[in-house]
Every structure is written in structure tokens, then in C-alpha cells.
Amino acid sequence: MLYPQSSSSRAMISLDGFWKFAPDVNDDGEQRGWTHQLPADREIAVPASWNEQYQDLMYFFGTGWYEREVELSRQLRSERIWLRVGSANYLSTVWVNGTEVGRHEGAHLPFVFEITEHVRWDGPNRITIRVDAAIAADRLPPGDVEHEQIVGFKGQYPNNYYDFFPYGGIHRSVTLITTPMSFVSDIRITTGIDGTAGKVKAHVGLSEGFEGACTVSIRGTQCRSSVKVHRDGADGGKAVFDFTVPAARLWCPEDPFLYELEVRLTDEDDHAIDQYVQSFGIRTVSIRGVELLLNGKPVFLTGFGMHEDFPVLGKGISPAVIAKDFNLLNWIGANSVRTSHYPYSDEFLSYADKHGLLVIGETPFVGFVRSHYQGTAILNKAKRVITEMIERDTNHPSIIAWSLANEGDTLAPEADAFYEALYSHAKSLDDTRPITIVNCVDVEKDVALKHYDFVSLNRYHGWYEQAGRLDEGCRILSEKLDRCYEVLGKPVMVTEFGADAVAGVHVDPPEVFSEEYQAEMVTRQYEIIRQKPYTIGAHVWSFADFKTSQTPSRVVVNRKGVFTRDRQPKLSAHKLKALWGGESR
Ligand code: GCB
Fold first, then answer.
1. Whose CA is nearest to atom 13 of ligand 1?
2. Which CATH superfamily hosts domain 184-280?
């Protein structure tokens, strides 16, 4: 389903704001009739995690119920009505006026259910959403894992198997959307370059039973084409268009120009039925030898791994935080980020499109262990998530690569076939972007990296290894990078390197946890990585401090941010700005 848009044929009603909320401590809300009435004594904000809104919910990782009412205008009566949730962690069930309308598994991607038949036009509609946020081994990302290999997570609280807080709740906007009875259900745009011209291919999906004309144009150009669509015709509900845009403005960080593709459906008497406008950029991404090319020119990715994380909001989306983060990325001189460790909001990616940020889009597969590769249950679930992610994000020019996993166990023999299957699944859906996975183990014994287009490494020499011995850490990092290239012969991206620094702690000569140590480490190691002829990028871990589980190695939050959790610069931010040529604003 396309991102919500209001147009001459579509309306949108935001359901963001306060909802009634009840934690379902015994997980028996349904038996107790909560789909008909929530015994809620508190109100909670949507979108936002529930954890930081009430003290007693901070460590609540069970099931939470949300309820609110909405009345709809009679003018919408002839339309189809859909309920869209931008994301909720983790298992969601939705009822409208007491009738279940759908379920969705997964924490970081949207879901939409048609509710036309269940809507009342003579009074308020009750929307109920049950969100089960339990931490479990078969969820993505997994928690509470029986692990053969201990990677430092044993005994942390809560017991998720990854280094960020497992916030629960509705994290992105809830929206009611209307469409006409027949509507544009999907648009998929791919682009190429031929001399100075842009090649644009658009696949348009049409709802079942549509009969009439589908007209596509690219605004501001002469590109326009129309096809007749016949009910039950051979086109199978799809129309494909090919355009050439002469003297195309290519999308790139310096000129993130967006074109707009407009799709119009009209009936046989030429009456307008539906209209949708999809923005896109004309650009190509490829790997040539050891180079990453954007529009045929080499590009080096400088920036961060980051998290969707902010005080009080938890993982809840906030346009203000997105604006602030982009401002800081620009200030410091970063050109790229990885959406570690899950797909970010549509809103973040649209902002990246407009502001020319290069993005590696990552799945929520962090911390797979050997048992996940056995059988097909996790593999099939993972493929479904990849499909959802690529279908949602494919039109974003800012996404220049996919990362299909972070730090899974890639030493286990079973990892070979598992990661190969993930790669070919993703490639079959999108062959226009390079694909990687992120490694944290010995590359010589890794069985999965060979399947991928470039190698991504998380390396903490001078922190988890050689702690306090920065000279040695830098020397070993340099040697290990060379060895990685020797072994795999593919371009290398260092997706994480960094050190914790508690803002305000100063030690000279530099020691671990001081601002000086972090600043020296990230600047020296960035330069080492940058100078290698086979590297395509260096991302410091992390952009900002973020909330995670409690464990002796974390000082309340993970302090590897070069900005604090509330986005104030540490010493390392100033040093990186000088190194990267950031701009003052
Ligand atoms: C990693 C993980 C990241 C952690 C980071 C750390 O390798 O990919 O999620 O937060 O290390 O700080 O330990």
C-alpha cells in the first residue's frame, strides 16, 4: 500500500494523539472483553513507546492495549476506508467496533487493513489495538536466545540479544485513509542513465476490477503516456511505462533533485477516479571493482550508524528529532547513515530523499545465532520482512544499498545457505542496489560474506579489544582491514568503530570513557579507513547516545554517541566536523 497522501481523490485522518491505554499484565484482555471496552485509567501518547511515559511501564515488556474513538464524515461514505499503523512493536491485532480486522507481525514496518465494512456512519467508531511486545527467540530481532556463542549479552536486563532497548508500543503514526473503490495500489519506479538522459520505468499496480485508462506523467517534463486497462484483461492489474527524460537532473547529495510521477485513473467516460503522486530521483548505484559508484562516479560513505531513539519518546517518531538530526549530520559533514538495526520511518527516508543523505537500509535481523538457521521458520519470516521493507522503500533514491543483517553468527556452517537465501531473495526483488551483511567475526572463517556485493565490518580495536591502547588498536585495525581485502577481494565498508565517552568526563592522557579518548579514536581510525584504496565508507558508531539494556559495560545508556542522547556535541563531534569539513548553521 502506498504512503498515505491526500489528493483530489483521497483523504487522510490522523489518529495520533492520546489513546486510552491498559497494560495486560496477565495477557487475558481478550477474554475479559477488552475488544469491547478497555478498562483504561490512563491515557498515553501515540506515536511513542509506552516505556518512558509512565515510570511503572519502563520495564514492561508484555502486552499493551490501546483504544480510541473516531467519527467519520458522511461525505466519505462512498469511499473505501483503510487503517494504517506506521509501526508497532511487535505483534499487533486490530479491532474496529469489536470486530477483528487484521494482525501483523514485526516492529519496524507499516501495516494497513481495509475497514470499510466495519465502519459506522451514525456515531463513533471504536479502534482497539493490542500490541504484544514480548522478547522472544523467534522474533525479529530475537531476544531471550539460547546462545552457543556468548557475545557479551549474557545476563543483561532486559534479556534481548542486541544492544538497544526493546521499547514497546505504537511507534509511528496511525492514520485513516480513504481511496476510491478503484485505486492505484502500488507504484514502483526504477531509473537508469543514458548519456545525459534519464531512463524511467514505472510499474503501476491497480486494484482488482479496475476498468478505464491509467495515465502516467512526469511533472515538469513532456513525459506522458496512457494505457487502457480492461477488467480481467491480460495486464493482471498492472501497467508498465517507460520514459526517457532528456537532460535529466541526476539525484545526488549535492543536488537531491526529485521528480514527481503522477498517476491518474479515469473511467470510460473520462471522469477522474484516482490520483497519486510519487516522488523519485533519477540515479544509479553500482559497484565497480573496489569502488561504490553513484551516477557512475565514486563516492565514499562518511557518517554514522544511528538509532531511532530519544528521551521520553523511546522509539516514537518525532519530526522535530528528524529535523534536528539532519541538521547535525549536515553540521558535522556526514553524507550517509545506516539505519541500524531496522528499517527507519518513511518520514526519515523522505527527508533523506529531499536533503541528499545516502542511506544503507537495514533489516531488523540483528543477533541471529545458529539455531535460527535450522528449519525454515525464521528464514521464511525473514524473507517476508525483506519483501515488506523493499516494497515500502524501493522508491527512495536516498537508499543506495541494503544491509540484510547485523552481526549474526556467520561462523556456523548453516549460515552459508541461510545468508545466500536472504541475498537471492532480496536480489530478486531489487537488482538495482548493492547488498551487504555486517560482520563482527573473523572474516577468514566467515561463511556468509562471500555471497554479498560488499563487505561490512564492525570493529572495536581500542575498545572491546586493545582497550586503552589506541596505538596498538589502530595498528591492528589497519592490518585486519588489509587482510579482509586480501581474503575476500571485495570493497570494504567499516560500518561501526567507536568508543564510549561520558559527556563531561575529561582525562589527559586519554583514557577509556573520556571525551578525549573517543575523539582521538574516531578521528584516527576514520583516517586509517579512509586511506585504504579498497574501502567505500566509514561509519562511526554511533551518531548519538541511546538507551539499551542494563549491563556493567553501559553507563545508563550506550555512550558511543558523538552527540549525547539529547543531541549535544561531545569533543569528538567538533573534531569530526573539522575533519569532515562540516558546515556551521
Ligand atoms: C556492535 C553492535 C551495536 C552495538 C555496538 C556497541 O557491534 O552492532 O549494536 O551497540 O556494537 O556499542 O557495542
1. 163
2. Immunoglobulins (2.60.40.10)
Residue 500 CB less than 6 A away from ligand 1: no
Position 18 scores a pLDDT of 98
| CA gap 492, 481 in Å, rounded | 8
Q: Is 235 a residue whose pLDDT tops 70? A: no
The model scores a pTM over 0.95: yes
Ligand 1 mean position, distance from CA 78 (Å): 51
- State whether residue 6 is helix, strand or coil: coil
ipTM (interface predicted TM): 0.99
- Looking at residue 407, the DSSP 8-state letter turns out to be S
The string of pLDDT tens digits covering residues 439-454 is 999 999 999 999 999 9
Q: What residues are labeled active site?
A: 407, 496
Question: How far apart are the CA of 338 and the centre of ligand 1, in A?
Answer: 13
How far is CA 187 from each of CA 57, 111, 242, rounded to the nearest angstrom? 40, 17, 13
- Is residue 71 predicted with pLDDT exceeding 80? yes
Q: Does CATH place domain 12-179 in 2.60.120.260?
A: yes
Parse the chain into domains and list their residue ranges: 12-179, 184-280, 285-580
DSSP 358: E
User: How would you classify the pairing of strands 212-218 and 259-266?
Assistant: antiparallel
The CATH class of 285-580 is alpha beta
Angle at alpha carbon of residue 213, lines to 208 and 216, rounded to 5°: 100
Residue bearing the CA closest to ligand 1, atom 7: 458
